[in-house]
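Cast an eye over this sequence plus tokens and explain the fold to me:
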Amino acid sequence: MFFRTLKQLAVAFTVTALFNSAAAAPAPQEPINLDELLQQLQQGQFSQSEDNKQREQRFRQQEQQQKQILREAINQRDRLEQLAAELETEFENNETQLGNLEDNLTQSMGSLKELFGVLQQVTSDTSGKFQNSVISAQFPARAEELAELAEKMGSSSKMPSINEIEKVWFALQQEMTESGKIAEFTTQVTAAGGDKQQQQVVRVGTFNLVSDGKYLEYNPSTGNTAELVRQPAGRYLSSAEKIQQVEGGTVSFGLDPTGGSILGLLVQAPSLKERIQQGGIVGYIILGLGVIGLLFALERFVSLMLIGNKVKRQLKKPQPSNDNPLGRVMLIKDKYPQADTETLELKLSEGILREVPKITRNLTFIKIISVVAPLMGLLGTVTGMINTFQAITLFGTGDPKLMAGGISQALVTTVLGLVVAIPMTLLFAMLHTRSKNMIHILQEQASGIIAERSERGE
């Protein structure tokens, strides 16, 4: 087969050489007659014959060399086949020996294998706990080291070294020790606006992180510490400031034992301002009525207190004064000294009726507000429930939060109405009682004046 290939190559080389020689030879002149044409054909055949002889001579010279190369290639192939067979036999022997050694290792390890399996499991679980622990904000890269160690134990049959076992023990001991400490350290904190800066952070065990009087959150996926976008109520922030300022002793602190879950729910709860905004236009109208009623009640309270003090002073003085209702009623007696009893009674009644509007001014408006406010709240609730049921019609009942949120917003107006109505009712009752007592004093003194005039007339 080799010689056949050489022959094919020789034929290809011959054809190529013929084409090359034909291309390189100068173009023959156009024959003038048939004799010249015959002569040119003879010359071309002779030159081609000479070239072929030269090529055949070169091929014969290279034949021995190609045979030598072929023999060397065959010898090398035989050596490589023999080597492959030896290596395959050695591989099979090694596989058998490795299986025997693994069996011996398993028998030798005995209960230690279960122990190291437990160690691997504990290392993996501890890595997961460290990743979510706020202590990792102070000691970063702990979880990654234990995760690499657990992966190494699982992928390799080699037993862990003493140093690796001590590393796991140290990590567990450190977590247990730091969980009972209030530590202060410096780290990069991302503010609510997105700015990053180095700040002093106080860590309260495994529960909370605070800085500059604000609560922080630790993101285990990125390892960043950031301020909560929404902070809890002011009393919790004041406790966060105290724990940063105190150097010894005890201090009250808003602790989240869940590690941030309760705090996350707490900051999601709407504030008082947001609750009021949920009431919408009806809620603002109710609050406006409440403010107006409160102003009227405050004005009536001050006025009745001043009038009551003047009336009390008038009761102690025999001379009537024109700066209080009782004095003005008593002046009627002096204005009509000759009037009979019936006429004086009518005049005194007229004077009392003249003072009553000044004493009971704006009390009716306060009473109206106390009645209208809960009705307005009911109106807002009904309107909100209508909107909620419309949303349920459009989106269905698949999302309970949608229903709960709509009902909560609807009930806000009822709460606002009751918040306004209850104090307005109490204020109206108090002010009405004061004004009624004052009118009773006027009627009582008028009756005394009539009785005195009647006795004197008899």
